[in-house]
Amino acid sequence: MGIDLNPYLRVNSTGSIPQRQTQVRFGTMPQDDRFESSLPERFTTEQAVTKLINSNPKISSILKESGIPLNINYASFKPVLDNHCRDVQRISKGIVQNLPFSLKNFVNEKALSDASYLHDIGKVLIPEEILNKKTKLNENETKIMHQHSELGYEILKNTNLDKTTLNLIRNHHQNAKKSGYPFVNKDFRADLNLQILTMADKYSALTEKRPYKEAFTPEQALTIIYADVKDGKLHPFVFKALANYVNSADYINLKTA
Asked: Would you state the pLDDT for residue 29?
C-alpha cells in the first residue's frame, strides 16, 4: 500500500502548499521518543544509562546504604554487556528452542530475551576494583556485588519495560528454594522464564574466563549446574534443554567459529 500524498499536495487559496500538521514529541527519557526502537539496546548507551540513573533518587539511597560511591563505570561495564549479556541472551534462546513443546507455551520470549540482555545493567554502578577483582571477593565486597540485581531493577524501573522483564532482571539470582538474592517474600515463585534466565546466566559465567578464574569446560559447567537441579533450585526439564543446546550443532559451531 502506497503512502497517501494528498495531505502534502493540497494547496491553499493563496496557491502555496500548507504545512502538514504533524507533532513529533521528543522526551527527556529514552522511552519518551515516539519513534524509539523496542530493542533493549536503547537503554544501554552511556547517555541512556546516565539519564536513567540520575532520574531515580532511590538508586543513590541504595548506594549510600551499601557504602558504594555513585560512579557510573561504563567502560568497565561495556565488556560485560557485549560479551556475557549477549551470551546469556543466546543461551536463553537455545534453552527455549530445546524445551518440550508443552513448556514453550509458558515462555515469554520477548521478556526473556530483553531481560537476558539487560540483567547485569546494575553492574555499571559496581566499583571497578570489585567488578574486575583478580582474587576472591571478601564478605563486604560480595554484599556490594550482590546489589547489582536490585540496582539493575531500579535503573530500568521507570522505563516502559513490562513487569515481567523487570522482575526477571531483579530476581535473576533467585531460585525455586528462595536461597538466592535479593530477598523475596513467601509468595515468590521462580517461574519457567526465571529458571531459564538463571540457568543461562550461570552457565555463561562458568564457561567464561574471568579475572579471578579460568573458563570451565561445558561438561564441568553442566556438572555444577546439575547440583542445583538435584538440590531443587532448578527444574530438570530446563537443565535437559540446556544440555541439549550445548550438545547441538548450533552451539558447537558458534563456539568453534
From this structure: 53
